[in-house]
Amino acid sequence: MTFPAVGVSPAAAPAVNLPGWAKELVDAYESNSASQFLIYGNVEDRIVIPGPPARIGSLTDFLLETLLPGFDVVLSYDLGNGVRVEKGGQTFAKWPTAKSGTEVSKQPRAAIEFLTHYFRYSANLARLNRESVQIACLVKGVGMIAPPLRGGMDYDLGAIVTLIRDWAADGALADHPLATFLVAENLNDVHPLLTRNPRAHQAQISLPSPADLTAAFSVLSDRYPKPLAGGGQTAETVAGALAGATLAAAEKLIKEKHHAAQELTASDLAGIKKEIVEADCRGLIEFVESKKTLDAISGADAIKAWLRQDIALWEKGDVAALPKGYLLCGPVGTGKSFTVECLAGEAGVPVVKFGNFRDKWVGSTEGNLERIFRLLRALGRCYVFIDEADQSLGKRESGGDSGVSGRVYSMIAEEMGSSESRGRIIWVLASSRPDLIEVDLKRPGRVDVKIPLLPTSDARESFDLIRFLCRSRGIEISPDNFDALAPKVPLLLTPGAAETIAVKTYRLMRTKSIEPAAALSECLDQYRPPVALETIETQIRLAVAEASDPSFVPPAFSSFLKP
User: Fold this and answer.
1) Which residue from 159, 232, 310, 541 has the least number of CB within 10 angstroms?
2) Beta strand pairing call for 325-329 and 425-431
3) Distance (Å, whole) CA 308 – CA 328
4) pLDDT, tens digit, for every residue of 313-337?
5) What is the CATH T-level fold of the domain 288-452, as seen in this structure?
6) Per CATH, the architecture of 4-205 is what?
């Protein structure tokens, strides 16, 4: 069997430049290894349809115009439109049942039975040597037609899934020139009997690469030339800056700029990517670009030196020695989130922070994670930050949530351990209770470097931390004040607590018009630890126990290593 649109093989039609996923479909169909294709991923995006002339269209347009124009009959089905004849209406009308089926064609089971009846009718005609009709069928939004079972037994759903599997497994249909396409955004939205069907070929459409975006801009510039007409921006530079965005979002940007008669500039691109990516992900992630550096962190010289060495390796592309992930652990308020921002600013790469990807609907949580992972693979170099990792990452075994936490755990563990992401994605987990994170998630190959972020260990260190944070607010505390203030300076002071002292010092200076040292002295008199000492010590002990390098642990805390 061959795809009539591209002849005997893609190589025989060099004028048609097919994307990788489409070449997969052609190879699988022509080798007779598969006739059913589950297309998932970035299926709702726009796509470049090869010409001449090339244009931008939907996935359905691409399939109809690029892969399927040689088929005699092309049908499609979705919940809203029912069964539609996309091509070959006269041939399809020869089927005696064709007209009577249109009235029930929107109901899933009736529609699938209707399509199956036609496929078998055509296959039987071909076996009788009466007529051979090449048929293609697109089932759009298959996750709404054949979703995962939501408890109990659903006989209609079972019938639908069984019939769709038969399109690939039934001997008569498999031998007939029939190609069926099941389209879904997320695999987790589709019934597992379809996603695990060994006779169906899965093809993932990724977010567009910079090369894909460049090709799209070349097509768009003919009709919308103004944005790329000047401003120092070429299609290649804009595509590189928008990596991780959908083609639809990029197309919208070009159209809006053209309508406003504006050229794209470097300053435009600095903020546009954040807006586009966050809009595409519908609140599932927060995209953070930081201008802070590791110099904004007081102390922690050994840790900062290690992180800078990793950044230097990253910049050189020496990924063999680069960690897949970090675990930042320590008491609450020790600046784990702040450290990530400083790390990203130092490296000059964005931070992707997970939002609330959990959903109450069955399968939605897993689908949201699929969408996030597609974005991460397209972004290029970035840090992925998961705060409160002991709560967010799920557990290998969990009860009371229909296994959602276990599936979340498995999906994140698989993604963190992927060798394909080394050198592009560095995972950063943060937790004050690292002992509650599953051991498999903390192992080398997922998290290679474990960094304890600890509070101050003596009065001088606490005083220097307070001075450092006061200086960032324009308050200068002289080092000569240490001797007088030392008895009041708290030990085991976290950056979060010290920040509170610095803010209050600033406030007293403005409200009482007193000198900085006097304001600080009054604040220290009123200071109360925000966290109980027992809790702080427990979290210090946990963080020190996790440390992957002895140099990360200050000598004052070496006693916490002892049982």
Assistant:
1) 232
2) parallel
3) 16
4) 988 888 888 889 999 999 998 889 8
5) Rossmann fold (3.40.50)
6) 3-Layer(aba) Sandwich (3.40)
